[in-house]
Amino acid sequence: MNTTRFSYPLKKIGLIGGGQLGKMTAQAAREMGFAIYVLDPQIQCPAASIADKHIIGSLYDSVKIRELAHLSDVLTYEIEHVDIETLKQLYDQGYPIYPSPYVLEVIQDKWRQKQVLAQHHIPVPKFQAVDDLNATFLAQAKFPLVQKARRGGYDGKGVAILRSIEDKEKILPVPSMIEEFVAFKKELAIMIARDKQGNIACYPVVEMVFDDRTNICDIVAAPATISPALAEQARKIAVDAICALDGIGVFGVEMFLTQDDQILVNEIAPRPHNSGHYTIEACLTSQFEQLVRIVSDLPLGSAKLLSPAVMLNLLGEAGYQGRPVITGLVETLSIAGLSFHFYDKSITRPFRKMGHITLLADDIETALMALDNVKKTLKIQGEDMIHD
Questions:
Q1: What is the domain extent for residue 135?
Q2: Is 110 within any annotated ligand binding site?
Q3: Is there a single domain that holds both residue 171 and residue 77?
Q4: Residues 115-161: pLDDT tens digits?
Q5: Contact 353, 315 (CB under 8 A)
Q6: Apex CA 271: angle with CA 266 and CA 272, to 5°?
Q7: Hey, is 263 helix, strand or coil?
Q8: One domain for residues 265 and 323
Q9: For residue 318, what are the contacts with CB-CB under 8 A and spacing of at least 6?
Q10: Which Gene3D superfamilies match (predicted)?
Q11: Which of 180, 206, 222 is the last residue of a domain?
Q12: Which residues contact 208 (CB under 8 A, 6 or more apart)?
């Protein structure tokens, strides 16, 4: 039997983007003995203090991306909004990049993403591409409807829900995809990990609750309170979607559960995802370690859920900005089973993602009850009040 050997560092991983996802990926990589090099425009980005090297530059700077590639054994990314043309050129020249920039190119365009899924018989809401939501289109449109910018949207930005023609002031002036409005029962998500050999690890199906003010994910509950049959159906649809894209890496698949118990794929993220943060404490292998394993040609880890868990995103409080001030931390950390993550962002502003907590409990109901108290107590404000 041949024994594999690695020299330290095991590999040099180049990471495009140094935000909170980059930080948590870098933490997992460093724990396992990998070197991590990060490209990010912010001098004090969350991953900067952990990375072995921080290249300061735009994610659209071809020269900086090539510099990162030349330093690294493999490239990955924590954000979709990057210079895809440079990545495709590097990939075609033989640089290992996961997920493939050709997969990223499909996912970057929400209409094309839906088109590929529909062509492979993945259930999705009805959709169409519309370059201009003009008076002619609105006159024949069926309301309510959802407008999504084809490119560039994230964290609720780039999405407009139009409930009638009176909402025309909400229209986004960009090339768009129009979807039917789905009156869903629940919003679900699942993290899918797939390696180069086609091996797949499926995390539990989770339920997401969104903040009505921002359309940013507020709470994630794992596992989702749905029947085993629906959970299995969601897993199969998600796996089929990633296989349809021929995706290699870690993917967040967001889905709707309709009123008549149909499952429709909403969107796919080609990277670790907000709905998978709970995996750090609650699963045998976190989504971040899983990504490190995949890009480094190591076996997939187990995605087994160790305990029911809920995750709460910590957003900057409305009315505050500047240096973060955390209140209620002592009271919060007195709760058994609770873990606190702060993203090392030196400036807060209203509704900016500043951290998250994960709470493990014997059941979801108990965890959610405790979470209600946390939401009232734990606040991230700023040193400066915002005056209208």
A1: 126-180
A2: yes
A3: no
A4: 999 999 999 999 999 988 887 888 888 889 999 999 887 766 788 88
A5: yes
A6: 95
A7: strand
A8: yes
A9: 350, 351
A10: 3.40.50.20, ATP-grasp fold, A domain (3.30.1490.20), ATP-grasp fold, B domain (3.30.470.20)
A11: 180
A12: 187, 188, 189, 217, 219, 220, 254, 275
- CA dist 374 and 240 (Å) reads 37
Tracing tokens 């209203």 back to the chain, one arrives at 350
For residue 179, say whether it is annotated as part of any ligand binding site.
yes
383 is in an annotated binding site: no
On the 0-12 / 13-18 / 19+ scale of CB atoms within 10 A, 209 is middle
For residue 2, the 8-state DSSP code is: -
Q: Kindly state the greatest CA–CA separation across the chain.
A: 71
pTM, two decimal places: 0.95
143 three-state secondary structure: coil
Alpha carbon distance 242, 240 (integer Å): 6
Q: What is the DSSP string of 236-251?
A: HHHHHHHHHHT--EEE
266 annotated as belonging to a binding site for a ligand? yes
Report whether 143 belongs to an annotated binding site: no
Q: Kindly report whether the peptide bond that precedes residue 41 is cis, defined as omega within 30 degrees of 0.
A: no
pLDDT tens by residue, 259-297: 999 999 999 999 999 999 999 999 999 999 999 999 999
Known binder of ligand: residue 182? yes
Residues 53 and 193 in one domain: no
